[in-house]
Amino acid sequence: MVGGVRAVVADDSHFMRSVISDILDDGGIDVVAQARDGENAVEAVIEHEPDAVTMDVEMPVMNGIEATERIMAERPTPVLMLSAHTDENADVTFEALDKGAVDFFTKPGGEVSMEMSRLKDQLVEMVVSVAAVDVTAAGKAKRSSTGSERTATTQSSTSAGAGDTYVENPTLVVGSSTGGPKMVETVMQNLPAAADLRVLIVQHMPEGFTGRFAERINARSEYEVSEATDGARIGGGEGLVAAGDRHMRVKNYRNGRLRARLTEDAPVNSVRPAVDVTMETAAETIDDPLVGLILTGMGEDGADGIRRIKAAGGSTIAQDEATSAVYGMPKRAVETGCVDSVLPIDDIADGIIDTITTEES
């Protein structure tokens, strides 16, 4: 799987360039060039045409955001941002994702070389995953395509049509990973407030970034969205983003309001927060209409949760391969046989609405 992946490593620290390059080399990835700033990174990408770039956020001459934007314009290449755990870096990292970066990896604090070594398998896996993403103009067009790939079970409307009405007290649980932030935002932007959904979002994202992610969704959608806290309650028109490094469980559900519980239980599917934890507890606890959605990401997290939601009588949707940055989680969900609809990203909001509308007689 790793064989043949070629990477450029960009970081203003010679030490970090060496550490990252050694980890990738040990993992079977060919580091074809190192760059000390963003300008060097752009030059290296044009010269060596790598499969992926690891890009530091803060660099002299040209920072990671500017370099990512230049790369996407001049020689589109999958970029994995390397960011520190700070609020400022969280803002910059999301800006880089807006400019075309595929995902990000958080640099550890403390004894960096020891911590990076501990995380080496994860870093190698992420670089390999990012390298497989098509970021060319054709790939972007394909991933933003609309219309033709809808399944027979769905229609085409982001609001209840004439003669239709929304069911009462619906809940949506969303799971995503690599390439997911922009996909989650797309879905949430297209959901009408009138649908009155309770929304639970589990994005594989470290502590320090989920709060900013929730703020972005809140600003860009009609829903009131916040980072989950232990004991947080939400009703219709509100949403919670699972906090980094905490599982989000549905503790109870009464009269259209649900309460979340955050735990530090062991990782599930090697991740925390895990989509399965939220979906399974939602399926066990919520007795009103429930919709499970799996978006782009690597791994199998969410597949068992989809089974549980389907078994509880809920509706299930997965993003299609053509519009997924990484068709891992959606593929595993589809393979369960418990997914009702497989849809391109621009049709998913419609698909959700279709599951929570009823035709009036």
What does this structure look like?
The protein has two domains: 6-135, Response regulator (Rossmann fold, 3-Layer(aba) Sandwich), CATH 3.40.50; 164-359, Methylesterase CheB, C-terminal domain (Rossmann fold, 3-Layer(aba) Sandwich), CATH 3.40.50. The protein is 36% helix and 22% strand. The chain is built from 13 helices and 17 strands. It has helices spanning 14-26, 38-48, 64-74, 87-98, 112-118, 120-131, 137-143, 180-189, 210-220, 275-285, 303-311, 329-335, 348-355; strands at residues 6-10, 30-35, 52-56, 79-83, 103-106, 164-166, 171-176, 198-203, 224-227, 233-234, 238-241, 247-254, 257-263, 290-294, 315-319, 341-343, 357-359. The strands form four sheets. The protein has a seven-stranded parallel β-sheet, with helices on both faces. Strand 14, helix 11 (303-311) and strand 15 form a beta-alpha-beta unit. Helix 1 (14-26) runs parallel beside helix 5. The longest helix is centred in the first third of the chain and has 13 residues, at 14-26. The radius of gyration is 20 Å and the shape is elongated. Residues 138-164 are annotated as: Disordered. Residues 151-164 have a biased composition (Low complexity). GO terms for molecular function: methyltransferase activity; phosphorelay response regulator activity; protein-glutamate methylesterase activity; protein-glutamine glutaminase activity. It is found in: Cytoplasm.
